[in-house]
Each structure stands twice: as C-alpha cells, then as structure tokens.
C-alpha cells in the first residue's frame, strides 16, 4: 500500500493545463486581426454579445473547445480554430434561457466553419428543456460557402440524409418555446431563415442587413445593389420579415429581455404576473375628449394605449408593417396580455393584406403562449381599390378571421370609433363568449354612410330643389338612426361606457382571464 494519498490536482495537472490551453485558443476566436476588423465595423464579437446579453456570470458554454485542430509532426496541438457557433445556457433577469450565436470572425459565420451538431443541440436543448432560445445571428448559417465544394469534394444536397435536424427544430420550436432572433451583421441564406423563423426579431440599423442571397449573387440578375439597398432595416421591417430595428446592439439586447418578460418559458407554463403599483381604477380624463367629433379627423391611438395599460408596460411589435394595426404586449394590474389596436393614421384603420397577415401571426403567438387578447377597435372595413384587389385582401382577411375564430384565450374588445363591414365584424371571435364595450364615440354598420348615401338615394337627391341640402338632411337622419344607443336598446351591443372607465374594465378582464389561460387540448400553435 502506498504511504501517501495521490494528489488529484498534481496527478491530472497536464490534462488540466491542456484543457485551459484549448479554452484560451477558443477565446481568441478568429484571431486578433479578425476581432479588430469586427470592432472596426462597429460590431461586437459573439462572446462580447453573450456577455452583455446574459445576466453577469450566468453563461455556461457547451462545446467551447470544439473546432478544427492542427497538430505538429509529433501529434502535439499547434493551433485550434474554434467552431464559429457559440452556445450554452444562461439567465436573463434570473430566468433560464438558451443562447446560440454565430462567430463572424471565423469564416464570416459560414456553416462550413462550424460543427452542425452545435446549433442543432442548442435548438434541441431549448425544446426538450422547455427554455426560450435567443439566436444571435451574423453569417450564412446554412450549407457553407462556395469553398465547401472544393474542401469536401462534393456539393451539399439541402436536406440531404441526416441533414434536416436543424431545419426541423428551427420551425418546431415556434410551437414550443419563445424564440428571439437578433440580426447583428450580414445575415444570408439559412441565417435569414433562422432570423425570420422567430416570434420576435430585431436588427441593428447601421451594421445589419438580411437577404436570401447577398449582393454578388443578386448582381447576376442585373440588380446592382449594396447590402442596405437589398436588405437593410427599412426594407425588412416594412416587409414584415423583421419586427424591429434599433440603433445599437445594447438596444437589441434590451428588446430581447423585454419581449421575453411577457412570455412563459414554454407552452407548458403561463405568462408571469408582476407586482403592480398602478391603480386599476385610475381614470384618465384625456380619454373623454381624445376622439374628435369630426369623423374626418384622426387621433393618436397610442395615447389611448399608454393611458389605459399599466404605466410604461406597452411593448410594441412590428410597428413598420401592416401599419393600420398596432400590435404588442402590455400589462393590466401586472397581468400580461396581447394587445391589438387600430391606427386611424394609416388607411383610416382599414385592414390591408399586410394587416391581415400581421393579425394571423400575432394571434397565433398569443394563443401559443396563453395570452388573453385586448382589441381596441377603429376599423372601417377592408381596404378597397385596385391595389387591394391585386393583393388578394379579402383572402388574407378571411384567413385573419379564421385565426381569430380559432383562438381559445379570453378576449375583450373596446370599440373606440368605427366597426364597419366584414373586417369590422372581425373584432371578436365568433361562436364563443368574449367581453365587448363601446365608447360613446363608437359607430357601426354594414358600410359607412359616406359615399353610400349618394348611391342609395340618388334619384331623391337629384330631384330635390337643393341637392346638397337634401343630402345633408338624409345624412342627419341616418346618423340619428344609427346611434349606438339604438343598437344597445336591442342588445346588439352589450355595454356603452364612459371612456374613462376603460382601464378599470380591462384590469377586471385581465383578472377574470387569469385562471382561464391554461392550455386547451387541440389549441392552435404558432406557424412560421
């Protein structure tokens, strides 16, 4: 028997030294020159991004020393170039998440410089451990670069044998956990698909661009465009491919934190409730006069939103797309809701084809993550005219109505002003109970009177001694007949309220809805 107990640190010190050496090489990423180039372009490295996004000291990396190694003639490690995918677990605001990021300093984030199992494991970890995932994207992230053909001696078959795992989880996670994408540089190919296949996506205005194929490839089509002209933030946020654009990476990180604060960790949980010191009975006198009597004048719907939600709690999503409808998250008495509101500044609040697509995506997300819905309504109907017909507005509109009718979450509508036509009817789910209130300024009908009177009463107007006066008389009479009070007499609308009571009623709704948010069998799930 030995006289001394072996010292485990001394006995395994060479291996520990080797581990630390490899870890140090991985920390260097693509090397000092590539890191300097990243900084000179105004972008952080992936490791700096992870450190800024995660709670301090919380990031636990997985596969840090995976990469491409070079050995000398005696089989000693000469150099380790790490895989350009960095991933692991961390916390954001104390809540566990999965972080996965592209390292642009190694072959520009191209997938032929990574190990495909790393991003795939990140997605699987989020799915099977029921954790939100944040993708920090800068690069192609797909089948690699053109050089892949030379280095492998073959062309990659997209979706070839054993190659569909990442494609599967990229979209599968939309129905399982919150997915956030941060586009912080050039994003192309599968990288663009991973950024778009999210519940919430953000890009930086000056340093990011997103496209299916970059300028050199598009130039073969005769379109000579730089990165910003092809896929800059104005293009992508207005098309709806990306939800939001910010001035700095720090702002992008803060957007990710705020977005996740409204959502559960997965579809198996409920959205978190927060303490609230904002009086649920708070009355805002400004609401009594915010809607003008002149129906041709617009007003600021966002002022109404900010007045009724818990102070500072509104978080808007997709502001530049489908602009006749505002969507985002808010809290009432500390309880999270999905909030939609018409914006009369754009097409008078009419639903365009883009608006209808926005409705579908937003309601799918609300249903997936058990968020009650509040809708502040001012919709004069579907957009009309040649361009609306070319955009198949009615088909997209029917799909939006179907999405609304498929929801199971508690719903409350407040009719602020207009509710006309088929789109006006789509202000609450059909076939189940929801709450509805109408402001004193509300008005509704099959179609607005403006323009319809001249057609319906043409002969009578033309025969009158003073056609203009006759038109005014008919309009005044019909306006009296369509008073919301007459609708309330027949119980076609449940309640007409003082606008200053709106916050109290919505806080009451959020409280009523709280125990009804549990997942239902066969419920709708998020589509990409």
Structural notes for this entry:
The protein has about 525 residues and is of the alpha/beta class. It folds into 3 domains: about 15-260, Alpha-Beta Complex (2-enoyl-CoA Hydratase, Chain A, domain 1), CATH 3.90.226.10; about 285-440 and about 495-515, 2-enoyl-CoA Hydratase, Chain A, domain 1; about 445-480, no CATH class. Helix content is about 35%, strand content about 20%. The protein contains 22 helices and 18 strands. The chain has helices at about 10, 15-25, 30-40, 45-55, 115-130, 145-150, 165-170, 190-195, 215-220, 225-230, 235-240, 250-260, 300-310, 355-370, 385-390, 395-405, 420-425, 450-455, 460-465, 465-480, 485-490, 500-515; strands spanning about 60, 65-70, 75-80, 85-90, 95-100, 135-140, 180-190, 200-205, 210, 245, 315, 325-330, 335-340, 375-380, 410-420, 435-440, 445, 495.
CATH topology of the largest domain: 2-enoyl-CoA Hydratase, Chain A, domain 1
CATH class division of the largest domain:
Alpha Beta
- What spatial form do the alpha-carbon principal axes imply? elongated
Tell me the CATH architecture of the largest domain. Alpha-Beta Complex
Write down the Rg: 28 Å
Number of strands: 18
Structural class: alpha/beta
Mean pLDDT: 90
Helix content: 25-40%
- Low-confidence segments, ≥5 residues, pLDDT <50? none
Number of H- or I-type helical stretches: 22
Cα-to-Cα separation, first versus last residue: 66 Å
Query: How many domain regions?
Result: 3
Determine the strand fraction and express it as a percent band.
15-25%
CATH superfamily of the largest domain: 2-enoyl-CoA Hydratase, Chain A, domain 1
């Amino acid at each position: 028997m030995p006289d001394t107990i072996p010292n485990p640190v001394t006995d395994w010190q060479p291996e520990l030294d080797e581990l630390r050496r490899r870890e140090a090489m991985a920390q260097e990423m693509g090397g000092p020159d590539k890191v300097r180039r990243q900084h000179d372009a105004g972008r952080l490295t992936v490791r700096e991004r992870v450190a800024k996004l995660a709670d301090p000291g919380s990031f636990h990396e997985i596969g840090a020393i995976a990469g491409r190694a070079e050995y000398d003639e005696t089989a000693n490690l000469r150099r380790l170039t790490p895989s350009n995918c960095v991933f692991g677990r961390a916390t954001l605001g104390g809540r566990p998440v999965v972080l996965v990021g592209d390292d642009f300093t190694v072959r520009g984030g191209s997938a032929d410089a990574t190990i495909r199992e790393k991003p795939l494991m990140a997605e699987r970890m989020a799915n099977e451990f029921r954790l939100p995932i944040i993708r920090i994207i800068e690069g192609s992230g797909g089948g690699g670069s053109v050089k892949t053909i030379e280095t492998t001696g073959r062309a990659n078959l997209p979706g070839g044998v054993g190659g569909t795992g990442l494609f599967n989880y990229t979209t599968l996670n939309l129905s399982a956990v919150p997915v956030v994408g941060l586009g912080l540089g050039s994003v192309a190919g599968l990288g663009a698909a991973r950024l778009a296949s999210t519940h919430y996506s953000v890009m930086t205005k000056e340093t990011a661009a997103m496209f299916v194929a970059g300028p050199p490839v598009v130039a073969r089509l005769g379109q000579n465009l730089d990165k910003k002209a092809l896929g800059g933030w104005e293009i992508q946020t207005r098309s709806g491919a990306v939800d939001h654009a910010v001035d700095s990476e720090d702002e992008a990180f803060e957007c990710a934190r705020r977005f996740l604060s409204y959502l559960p960790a997965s579809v198996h949980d409920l959205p978190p409730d927060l303490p609230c010191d904002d009086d649920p009975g708070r009355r805002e006198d400004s609401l009594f006069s915010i809607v003008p009597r002149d129906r041709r004048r617009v007003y600021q719907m966002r002022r109404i939103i900010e007045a009724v939600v818990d102070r500072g709690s509104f978080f808007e999503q997709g502001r530049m797309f489908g602009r006749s409808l505002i969507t985002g998250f808010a809290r009432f008495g500390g309880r999270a809701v999905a909030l939609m509101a018409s914006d009369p500044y754009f097409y008078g609040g009419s639903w365009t084809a883009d608006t209808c697509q926005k409705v579908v995506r937003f309601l799918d997300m609300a249903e997936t993550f058990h968020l009650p819905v509040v809708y502040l309504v001012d919709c004069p109907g579907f957009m009309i005219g040649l361009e609306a017909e070319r955009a198949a507005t009615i088909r997209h509109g029917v799909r939006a109505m179907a999405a609304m009718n498929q929801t199971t979450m508690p719903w409350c509508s407040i009719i602020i002003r207009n509710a006309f036509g088929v789109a006006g009817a789509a202000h609450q789910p059909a076939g189940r109970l929801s709450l509805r209130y109408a402001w004193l300024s509300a008005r509704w009908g099959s179609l607005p009177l403006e323009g319809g009177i001249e057609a319906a009463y043409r002969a009578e107007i033309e025969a009158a001694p003073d056609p203009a006066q006759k038109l005014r008389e008919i309009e005044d009479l019909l306006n009296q007949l369509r008073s919301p009070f007459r609708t309330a007499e027949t119980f076609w609308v449940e309640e007409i309220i003082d606008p200053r009571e709106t916050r109290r009623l919505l806080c009451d709704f959020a409280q009523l809805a709280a125990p009804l948010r549990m997942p239902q069998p066969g419920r709708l799930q998020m589509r990409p």
